[in-house]
Design brief:
Layout: H1 6-18, E1 24-41, E2 44-55, E3 60-73, E4 78-89, E5 97-113, E6 116-129, E7 135-148, E8 157-167, E9 178-191, E10 197-209, E11 212-225
Parallel strand pairs: 1-11
Antiparallel strand pairs: 1-2, 2-3, 3-4, 4-5, 5-6, 6-7, 7-8, 8-9, 9-10, 10-11
Keywords: Signal
Signal peptide: 1-23
InterPro entries: DUF2490
Amino acid sequence: MVRGALPLASGLWLLASALPSGAQVVHDGQFWFNATIFGGVGSVAYFAEVQPRVGDGLSRLDQLILRPAIGWKLDDRLSLYQGYARVESTPLGGRAFGEDRSFQQVNWEIGRIGRLKLSSRTRFEQRWQTNGRDVGFRLREQVRAAYPLTDAKGSVSALGWVETFVALNDTDWGARAGFDRVRAFVGLEIPVVDRSTIELGYMNQTVNAPARVEMDHVLSLSVLYRP
């Protein structure tokens, strides 16, 4: 359990170090739901996800993400993907806008330390928004740790992960090069049918917004279907 908490501890450190000194912090309660299907034929792999996000004190849908990808399994531990995401956002007090993303992704099953299972996901995004003409480049790195709570096969696992986002350039629609945001999650990974799982827990998202810091407290529910 101590090892399983390492990603959370790292995330909390990143949250603290990323906050600009003296910046106003704006808090929000949110609910994020993620439904993803994974599959493949031979070495060809794919996934497709839909992710509605409810914000503004759990009062309204403020973002919807559709994200399919196709890839290639190099071996049992390493997979490469090319994907596309469509993001529809309706920020409070602002104009609705859309975003198209092309992304390349590397999934790596790092291995085990005792019962602790480690994995990572690296994603490089090219982003276009409807309220500007520039292309934004962003790098995302997620490290996950899962620790079974019992020795039984199919045990529920304690789950923690941290994902850091770094913008690589400035854009005319508001992106600024440097630290963009960090997410830290702690919760449970619950097996349901075959290899399918449910992930339920708390996620903290800290966003480096202009002139302030946005801190979202998120109830996160993910249903991951693996036929």
